[in-house]
Amino acid sequence: MGFGERMSESSENLQANRKEIGVAIVGCGTVGGATASILLNQQNRLSKCIDVPILLRAIVDVDFTHARELGLDESLFTENLDAVLSRDDVQIVAELIGGTDKAKEVVERALRAGKNVVTANKALLAHHGFELVKLARENSVCISFEASCAGAIPIISVLTEQLACDRIDAMYGIVNGTCNYILTAMSQQNRTYSEALAIAQQHGMAEADPSLDVMGHDSAHKLAILAALAFGQRIDLEKIYVEGINNLHPQDIQYGKELGYVIKLLAVAKRQGDALSLRVHPAFISTLHPLAWVSGPFNAVSIYAENAGHLMFYGRGAGVPATAAAVVGDIASIALGNAQRKFDKLRLWPDRNEPAKQLDIGTVRCRYYIRLQVEDRPGVFAQVARILGDRQISISSLLQHESGPGRTDGVPVVITTYDALEANVQAALAEINQLEVTKAPCVCIRMVAEHPEKMNS
Amino acid sequence: MGFGERMSESSENLQANRKEIGVAIVGCGTVGGATASILLNQQNRLSKCIDVPILLRAIVDVDFTHARELGLDESLFTENLDAVLSRDDVQIVAELIGGTDKAKEVVERALRAGKNVVTANKALLAHHGFELVKLARENSVCISFEASCAGAIPIISVLTEQLACDRIDAMYGIVNGTCNYILTAMSQQNRTYSEALAIAQQHGMAEADPSLDVMGHDSAHKLAILAALAFGQRIDLEKIYVEGINNLHPQDIQYGKELGYVIKLLAVAKRQGDALSLRVHPAFISTLHPLAWVSGPFNAVSIYAENAGHLMFYGRGAGVPATAAAVVGDIASIALGNAQRKFDKLRLWPDRNEPAKQLDIGTVRCRYYIRLQVEDRPGVFAQVARILGDRQISISSLLQHESGPGRTDGVPVVITTYDALEANVQAALAEINQLEVTKAPCVCIRMVAEHPEKMNS
Q1: Are residues A171 and A257 in the same domain?
Q2: pLDDT digits over B17-75, tens only?
Q3: Is A53 helix (H, G, I), strand (E, B) or coil?
Q4: Based on the domain organization, do B162 and B152 belong to the same domain?
Q5: C-alpha distances in angstroms, A418 versus A249, A367, A369?
Q6: Is 0.80 topped by the overall pTM?
């Protein structure tokens, strides 16, 4: 489509001639309510920062209980989305209802009505980003979603501006605050997974049904969104390997600690040749790793770029004010006209790119932490060592604590390996699990090293 | 000036109608050369990322030795800046000559010729930012300077986009890679300042004349630039309190370590009421502080915003590829038209704001590390304690190691205080230094606590 001049010019004019920008919020739950509060209560400040007045025109929902609790202006309340979408003085629709079905419908209707869309909805974008971006482009508007990934961390802004022309080699993220909170509690307070989850729920850090978070899917959604922009390729969510934190045992976290490692749920995206390795799984990282100190509800994303080198972005990955701040940031960027420019002139967006070659988890090479539960008698370790050796898996360290005599459930033996191929490790573990001396299936946790920086000088 | 429509429209049109953007680099030293290399050698990649071709049209210098070493296209070399500035196919001038006199002249001539300017020159901006920004606006172009602060960390991009509408309460930065490298060596390898400086110089991490870095002025330049944008106020560089690292003693760094603190050169900007406290000085921070793990040549900037909460940005603060990456990022942002929009429509720029009320260092309240060198005999500490108590300075901890008998040079006694007023501390220290029992002037290092986050929910 050439230089995209046609579209960019039409949208340019749309923005450039506006003396004010009207916003409608659809969905007035916690994030929608906080966004409305910022737009209404911080109106004076906003006007001091930016030469384009941003005016909240409507709050669309079917239940205004929360909106009333916040004391929002009731004259803005409406159940009639159609009426809002037909208003000429609304240029931006902020979809903050969550879920995917209803939200998708709202976003599609807004885009078709020629409204720019801001959304915090990672599930929606991870599943339907390609078609929604395409639909936005067909309607000469843009869709912005800073709040969908890592809360207030302006990671999408950075990927689509300062880093847009750099070549990103790898990205490592702690992008789920619930999981990081639970893992921090397990690690620092020596809690079981269930205890830590209960604490997180008590503190409002985990949902009543936490499965989307703890099973890693929420992190995979964010990884799909970020990787698409970082690498300028279309990402298939279904092909991202996902492993959650819900099966982690405190004893492994403690063994890891003894060895100098801390456990994190990592979202990893790496170039390997002309393909991408994308995965979400618990990982042991050295206490010296740049992500090791990121604890509690905080998120962080590390990026390794050819020219810029290693960059890391840290902040509140969730929570109402942080998410609302990101939504308001997107609204401001649309009001400035910059979001539209990025959307028109950058070729990073999924509708402008081919599908990525996504590698299978079996192709990963890293170090592994393996805990065996085996009989405590002569010759056992020789069997294990043979199986590992046969598959080119070298042992880096071994840890077996003294145990009392006569245990019939086996004793734990912890092995760390040198770099090995995942496919080989899985095959070896399957074989070890079949051994008569093995009393429980092996536990296997990937150990992720700090990414090497390629410095040009 | 109303909504800035006139300017923004004229510049809009300038950018929007361009099918390509021409760049001239002035000054082909290490950063200029690396920028030229990226623009020439990564041309294919740039064209895949952005719909606006970015073309290097000229390299202006008087000595092309380095340019030739890099194998840059000799047809671009010219000594004639005037000829370059008169070309219609050059829209951006990247000033990369450094220093302030010649650089200022080049930037002014480029702006007057209607060229957008990209510069990495922090000294120039800290001293003359106000007038240069004003001159850019008068000529309907913009001036971008991401590379001037914290290298490849996109901190200016973030301050002028996602955070432009948030209210920033405080900023804490480690913004000088040379100092951080030296302090890391002093701390981790127990080196003296002179030894650590020599190591830094051997590794290309410090200049032959390191005074601008080690005395804190380079950090103050960056603080002046960042604080102006973060707080939307004009900053007077001369009123920033500056203390360098060149007088630090290894024994204080080791005492700090014993107490659980690490030493960093911090650039601090905080709101206090309607005024700003701006300062650069060595500080002890807890090993649990978010900036504590930032070591070696890395930089980091922590920002505390009302809505977004705590954000931290980390990366290579200096070095040739990182700085060149930031310059190229600015060029891309100008090519997109976004830099101009930010420049036109945000009210953060110093020419649109009043001078800040900058507080004197005496108004700082924090904890203090104080090392006395006093006679080891009864009653000495009572005198010291009385002087501190008289000035509302409470002692939080005391540390005195056993020493051999008969020392005439006094023994070191380390005190940490609770929060106290700087003016009181300095007065107390002046008094203690006058005591007969004091054998050497007190050493005093501020202890900076983690900034409290005001969370809205």
Answers
A1: yes
A2: 568 999 999 999 999 999 999 999 999 889 888 989 999 999 999 999 999 999 999 99
A3: coil
A4: no
A5: 23, 5, 10
A6: yes
- Among the candidates A293, A316, A339, a domain finishes at A316
Cβ–Cβ gap A308/B49 under 8 Å: no
For chain B, which residues score pLDDT lower than 70?
1-18, 406, 454-457
CA–centroid distance for B258 within its chain: 29
DSSP code of residue B350: G
d(CA A235, CA A350): 8
- Is B282 within 8 Å of B443 (Cβ atoms)? no
* Alpha carbons B310 and A148: distance in angstroms, whole number: 18
Distance CA A75, CA B209 (A): 65
Provide the pLDDT for residue A17: 52
DSSP one-letter code for A299: E
Together in a domain, A310 and A346: no
**A357 catalytic residue (yes or no):** no
CB contact under 8 A, A166 and B325: yes
Residue B137 identity (one-letter amino acid): R
Distance, in Å, from the CA atom of A225 to the CA atom of A346, rounded to the nearest integer, reads: 16
| Cβ-based neighbours of A184, under 8 Å, separated by 6 or more | A295, A296
Per-residue pLDDT of A98-133, as tens digits, reads 888 999 999 999 999 999 999 999 999 999 999 999
- What mean pLDDT, rounded, does chain A reach? 93
In chain B, which residue's Cα lies nearest the Cα of A329?
B162
Q: Considering only CB atoms, which chain A residues are within 8 Å of B322?
A: 307-309
- Say if residue A83 is in the same domain as residue A218: no
**Number of residues in chain A:** 457
For residues A372 and A441, is the Cβ–Cβ distance under 8 A? no
Q: Which residue has the tokens 């879920």?
A: A99
- Say how far apart CA A22 and CA A39 lie, in whole Å: 11
Q: Which domain holds residue B372?
A: 364-447
Residues A82 and A182 placed together within one structural domain of the fold: no
Contact call for B309 and A324, based on CB within 8 A: no
Pick from B5, B45, B50, B161 the residue to mutate for testing the A interface (most A CBs within 10 Å): B161
Closest CA relative to residue A417, chosen from A453, A380, A449: A449
Please enumerate in sequence order all residues whose Cβ is within 8 A of that of B348, keeping only pairs 6 or more positions apart, or say none: A49, B159, B160, B164, B228, B229, B232
Q: Are residues A179 and A312 in the same domain?
A: yes
Q: Whole-angstrom Cα distance, residue A72 to residue A68?
A: 6
pLDDT tens-digit series, residues B126-142: 999 999 999 999 999 99
- Other beta carbons within 10 angstroms of residue A402's beta carbon come to 6
Return the closest-CA partner of residue A342 out of B49, B116, B7: B49
User: Is B307 part of a structural domain of the chain?
Assistant: yes
**DSSP string computed for B66-114:** HHHHTT--GGGEES-HHHHHT-TT--EEEE---SSHHHHHHHHHHHHTT
Say whether B325 and A336 touch across the interface (CB within 8 A).
no
